[in-house]
Design brief:
single chain, alpha/beta, Rossmann fold, 7-stranded mixed beta sheet, two-stranded antiparallel ribbon, 38% helix, globular, transferase, cytoplasm, EC 2.1.1.-, protein-lysine N-methyltransferase activity, S-adenosyl-L-methionine
Length: 212
Amino acid sequence: MCDELEHCELGTKEYWDNQYKEEMKNYNNRGDVGEIWFGEDIVDRIIRWMNKENINKLNRILDIGCGNGMLLIELYNEGFKNMVGADYSENAIMLARNIALKLQCDIEFEVCNVLQENINLYNFDIVLDKGTYDAVSLSIDAKENRNKYIQNMQKMLKPSGMLILTSCNWTKEELITQFESCFKLKESIPTPEFKFGGKVGNVVTSVVFVRE
């Protein structure tokens, strides 16, 4: 059991449509790609972990809730070529496609709601999530939506496929409990620590789950 997070606008499609509409405008006017969710340091840590694990560059990789697509673009520059970015915001996908085209990165982007019943994205070796589970956790009917998310992650991945999930709302222990019906923990990716009142904690949690 876990306490649900309080619903807020970050859990609504309207918020993200407006966010990426503005980012598209900024990109068209100034070439600004927009916010790197959780910052470039987290992106670097995920990529370093994947390189350390010698992840096959031909693996089929999905970034769910890809936003502006910058995580996939960084991976593309590292030699990963078989990748798909998905987001439920049409504006996000439009922005990601435009950025990838300008940077000459051959990445597929699709509009997809991770909570829909009939997901059309299957057989991935790796699914990346950098903040999407957090947004789901802030939605109305969050508990039901979290369960749908977990079930669909299992459907999207091949047997023994990996889900690399980064969250600022849940601890490692909470995520292990929430995902234990379909996934087991493989490893935690180190994230920046903070100290307060003599205790050490993490602002962001990154975990690697393996589909059972």
